[in-house]
Design goal:
homodimer; alpha/beta; Carbamate kinase; VC0802-like; 8-stranded mixed beta sheet; 6-stranded antiparallel beta sheet
Amino acid sequence: MLIVHKYGGTSVGSLERIESVATRVAKAKDQGNDLIVVVSAMSGETNKLIGYAEHFSQNPSKREMDMLLSSGERVTAALLAIALQEKGYDAIAMSGRQAGIKTDSTHTYARISSIDPTLMKNEIKAGKIIVVAGFQGINEDGSVTTLGRGGSDLSAVAIAGAMSADACEIYSDVDGIYTTDPRVEPKAKKMDFVSYDEMLELASLGAKVLQNRSVELAKKLKVKIVAKSSFSDAEGTVIGEEKKDMEAVLVSGIALDRNQARVTIREVADRPGIAAEIFTALADEQINVDMIIQNASSDGTTNLGFTVPQNEINRAKSVIEGFDHDIGSMDFDDSVCKVSVVGVGMKSHSGVAATAFTALAKENINIEMISTSEIKISMIIAEKYAELAVRTLHDVYKLDV
Amino acid sequence: MLIVHKYGGTSVGSLERIESVATRVAKAKDQGNDLIVVVSAMSGETNKLIGYAEHFSQNPSKREMDMLLSSGERVTAALLAIALQEKGYDAIAMSGRQAGIKTDSTHTYARISSIDPTLMKNEIKAGKIIVVAGFQGINEDGSVTTLGRGGSDLSAVAIAGAMSADACEIYSDVDGIYTTDPRVEPKAKKMDFVSYDEMLELASLGAKVLQNRSVELAKKLKVKIVAKSSFSDAEGTVIGEEKKDMEAVLVSGIALDRNQARVTIREVADRPGIAAEIFTALADEQINVDMIIQNASSDGTTNLGFTVPQNEINRAKSVIEGFDHDIGSMDFDDSVCKVSVVGVGMKSHSGVAATAFTALAKENINIEMISTSEIKISMIIAEKYAELAVRTLHDVYKLDV
């Protein structure tokens, strides 16, 4: 089997940890696998380099930031290859460029445009373990680019896709994806399997494991991801294509997002395009709107509700104040949170939503906003009820069983 | 004018120093010059990375070491470019690869095979200041290579050659080349000019400024080097082609090499090839032989003398013991030093050597070995006389005038 391993900053955060990553990789090789290992910078290194750059400029050139930051992953890649060689394994370190990763020119947040796996294929054929510096590629000009937050995961998934690897194992300091946050609900269980779509909706549960961008790419390239811990031998969670027999499982997990603020705009002039104008204005200010709810209109006006990250609420206010001739009143609440019930099984079971509403009502938790997709029901509630709501929903769907 | 600046590790050893390098570069740009700046890693960085590698292996793979070590220069290049941009200058950072530096595959000590200056020419034409990560290039496979000790100087000289730059200014913490070591002879004077050949022979005087490899390359490419201090505005020393009117100057400087041990082999069998056998055996053990003296033979045997670095004397002994059937006796002395008188003017003045011998004799300094080249007279003397010999010779040739 050809397996891609990816180790994040914490997993390679010290020389001792790099050593133990080498041991883990060696073991996988001994089991007869071909291996490509993608590594992040040692934890703390990237922040140190950012600090250096900020000494000179509050707004450093993104092209030069990419050249600066890409050095951290190269250091780890070289060190891990050396550690493997010392153990007697034939290993070779590669930069993103050498691994054939081509990107567009959006420095600091580049998108992978293609991978030329020729060199990697040759080295695998020669029996070598390849260690790739994650998070980076080069653009058409040959300048170094980086892929943004979670970029090493993206490198790993893209390489797994280009090399038709059997699995892409993402190692971090958590051992998989849980039915909900174990700090909130100690009865949370690690899932053996979660589908790409569920994982995307459960983003907050997987935030420490991998970013949605990587899940989307894995879905597109049909790369099987395994989220595992680099500190244990636990099995981990497989993230893959939805299985036919999964219909039995209605709900997979409960996600919680505390970083939500609610905005309600009342008596919005019910003329075509007004909502578009408001959200365009918000987007122009780089405000990230999450849920949007618009009630059916009556008496010529409508109410519009949406949520934004809590630290963007003041900027959102300023934008909306610019529309004061088009709206009646505004109402803000930054002490709310979003609780979501996720599961591919709920597509065909309308009862899932009713179960959630009933369970929360029993606890006297008022639901301020509701938004549903095919596999998710999200509810905005007062933040003080966050933990209670999570535990209640986890319990009512019997996720601990 | 197109000028290449090169800043060593001490000159970019902290963020504050990088800032002051930026100021110096900006000033040169303001004076109407086009600029390419070659930088080393921040002092201490390279040793830190070597320490990391040694944690894993006492003999790490050279290819991976190159990938590891090349990251330090990239960091400096990116930071300096950011500092220049912040001052309002259009600057662009380049790795060795982006600067078009191709090398052979001798990892950790690669030789530059060619430079493709296309990208640099375009950026200079666009008015940009180019900041190049020194010490590195890529080989035919696209693997990163490094150029060995003094590699950033080599990068700078090679770039200056490929770009037909008007000068290559090498900045360090000393302000030029002196007639002798000022710590030994306080009357030592900074030279305004020294020829390539003299500089090669004065290697020990320029050791902190630039390696002979760079001087040789500069001579080959006819690159004018200026050795300057990055901590002052002093004029520096020009290293260039021998001038016609230089014949007036007999002696340029006095070099001292304390790291010498003398080996004398007596009654060497005078058969063809015996010297070759001995020196081949020494070379096979990586022992660096410096001076070699063989006296004309008499009575069927000859005496052979040579010097090696002091810390290699024991290994040299072992090698020579293998020849005990071919030699009479051996004699070792590791308390010697080499004093050299250098000057292109001495080519046509035989009296220069006599002056040196006479001056040392007057001080009762016994000369154990003598070796001469066209522009140098080297003498091995007891190490305890090192300073006295340097001062005596500096004085007799009136180098302080």
